[in-house]
Design goal:
It contains four helices and five strands. The protein has about 130 residues and is of the alpha+beta class. It has a five-stranded antiparallel sheet with strand order 4-1-3-2-5. The two termini are about 30 Å apart.
């Protein structure tokens, strides 16, 4: 049988298999979580994600708290993740840095797995919104 309820179930299953969590690489070290959130919001993705994690150096590791150059972000749907990747691949934060962002599919997928992984592993700036996974 083509179409109807069976095709809807297959479509939902395929959507769940597509990545929703991305790794943002080559973030300039001076960019803060707040900067990242403002930029994401300005580009139209304010309500598109439910988790973002950006590890930072501790005060013992550096005189100032800077990020480690990467972040993880989980989107509410695979389509939003694809749109974000297109928008932010090779994105430059400002003229002071020559770094261009690279966007990769994260190994861990989904908000819940990322929350578990990063809540106990790193000192970080983490932003979680909403209550769904």
């Amino acid at each position: 049988k083509i179409g109807g309820e069976d095709s809807d179930n297959i479509s939902n299953m395929e959507e769940r298999l597509e990545p929703t969590t991305l790794m943002i690489c080559d973030i300039p070290c001076r960019v803060t979580l707040r900067d990242m959130l403002e930029t994401i919001s300005f580009q139209g993705f304010a309500d598109a994600f439910d988790f973002i994690h950006m590890p930072v150096r501790s005060r013992r590791q550096a005189k100032t708290r800077t990020n480690l150059g990467y972040a993880f972000i989980n989107f509410c749907s695979p389509k939003l993740a694809v749109s974000f990747r297109k928008m932010f691949e090779n994105f430059h934060f400002d003229s002071q840095s020559t770094k261009a962002l690279r966007i990769k599919t994260a190994h861990l997928q989904g908000r819940m797995l990322n929350e578990i992984q990063f809540s106990r592993r790193y000192r970080s700036d983490t932003h979680v919104s909403g209550s769904s996974s």
